[in-house]
Design brief:
The chain has about 70 residues and is an alpha+beta fold. The protein has helices at about 1-5, 25-35, 50-60, and strands at about 10-15, 45, 65-70. It has a single domain, classed as Ribosomal protein L30/L7 (Ribosomal Protein L30, Chain: A), CATH 3.30.1390.20. It is built from three helices and three strands.
């Protein structure tokens, strides 16, 4: 999905935490924390050009809702 967004010319995406990291793999919990997400429903704007952030998003995408940011 992320490569398709990049092909469309999208620059930023909005990520939203929709599942709790409680009980998940410790490295996945740490990734959610590093993304700056603490509570369910919290959103962040992420630059799609940053490969490190995109790797983090891809790692925990099962806990996130990813939307195109128009702003």
């Amino acid at each position: 999905m992320l490569t398709a967004l990049k092909a469309q010319g999208v620059k930023k995406i909005k990520i939203k935490l929709i599942k709790s990291p409680i009980g998940k793999i410790p490295s996945h919990r740490a990734t959610i924390k590093a993304l700056g997400l603490k509570k369910i429903g919290q959103e962040k704007i992420v630059d799609i050009e940053n490969k490190a952030l995109m790797g983090m998003v891809k790692k925990v995408d099962y806990m996130l809702k990813i939307e195109v940011f128009n702003g």
